[in-house]
Amino acid sequence: MQERTQVKIIVPGDREMISLIGTSDELLKVIEQAFESTIMVRGNEITISGEPQETDVVARLFEELIELLERGNLLTAETVSRSIEMVRSGQHSPSKILSDAVLTTPTRSIRPKTVGQKRYVDAIRSNTIVFGIGPAGTGKTYLAVAAAIHALKTKQVQRIILTRPAVEAGERLGFLPGDIAAKVDPYLKPLYDALYEMMEPDEFERAIERGMVEVAPLAFMRGRTLNDSFIILDEAQNTTAEQMKMFLTRLGFGSRAVVTGDVTQIDLARGQVSGLTLVQKILAGIEEVSFSYLDANDVVRHRLVQQIVEAYRVYGEGIDAELS
């Protein structure tokens, strides 16, 4: 018969138990499904019974969740699930990772949701150039934009510049109506969407009018020197080697750059080498240049997206194995 033990957690009196276990115990059910231990809740006391090693993990989980509440976080099923994964690994503290606000607005606080995202945010804070490389849904661009807005609001930089290559430009742009701005606008819409989510409409319009925020296609960067700026290059897997070099050499005094992309979704013409693939070999080991890699575990969209990304990764490895 396996040894069983019992651990008790006292929830601080100023914390309502409902915020910890959920309105209809939905958060408690997430925890109960993840562990075999028995969890009893009475008043402000939680009793955990089960195998010693697991009860310790569950107790630490509740302590971390209480700490998250103390730091102003709202617990959701997703937050609890991610906290369970972190605590089980024994290497990460959910309360430290999930409480790290990248940007706080009157209506929301933008924080990393995974260990990989936290490493990415830390890299942006401590390096001049950061490459965020990973699949769709890992928050590469979103967190970079949040960091850029924070830098602008705290006067670390004087302007934000967001750019991305218009891969399908060439012939097709000529047939689109309007001037060049109207032609490239569809390619830049994802960047506008991120800005709209984090800035008030009036604030955003003023920033655009004053040149404090600029969204432009990569071709517009040629010949410029960008000082005191936070520059984001999105969809960088679709840059050529020459375009990547051109972009990186625009960096001026007091500026920082974040380059994001997914090397599994390269849309360049056959025979062209992705600048994002090549730059990893060229700039590896250079001080103040950091490469931050995210994977399926960092996908923060629908759970199904995480499974799709992982399935494609496994399939791609199988194809590579057959070719080698």
Beta-strand content bin: 15-25%
Order of helices and strands: EHHEEHHHEEHEHEHHHEEHEHEH
Distance between the termini: 51 Å
Structural class: alpha/beta
Walkthrough of the structure:
The structure is a single chain. Helices cover 46% and strands 16% of the residues. It has 324 residues and is of the alpha/beta class. Helix 2 (26-34) packs parallel to helix 4 (77-89), helix 3 packs across helix 4 (77-89) and helix 6 packs across helix 7 (140-153). The longest helix is centred in the C-terminal third of the chain and has 21 residues, at 303-323.
Fill in the keyword field for this structure.
13 helices, 324 residues, alpha/beta, 46% helix, three-stranded antiparallel beta sheet, six-stranded parallel beta sheet
Short description:
This protein is α/β, with parallel strands linked by helices and 324 residues long.
Mind sketching the topology for me?
Blueprint: E1 5-10, H1 17-21, H2 26-34, E2 38-42, E3 45-50, H3 52-70, H4 77-89, H5 94-97, E4 103-104, E5 109-110, H6 115-126, E6 129-133, H7 140-153, E7 159-164, H8 169-175, H9 180-198, H10 201-209, E8 213-217, E9 229-233, H11 241-248, E10 256-261, H12 275-282, E11 289-293, H13 303-323
Parallel strand pairs: 6-10, 6-11, 7-8, 7-9, 9-10
Antiparallel strand pairs: 1-3, 2-3, 4-5
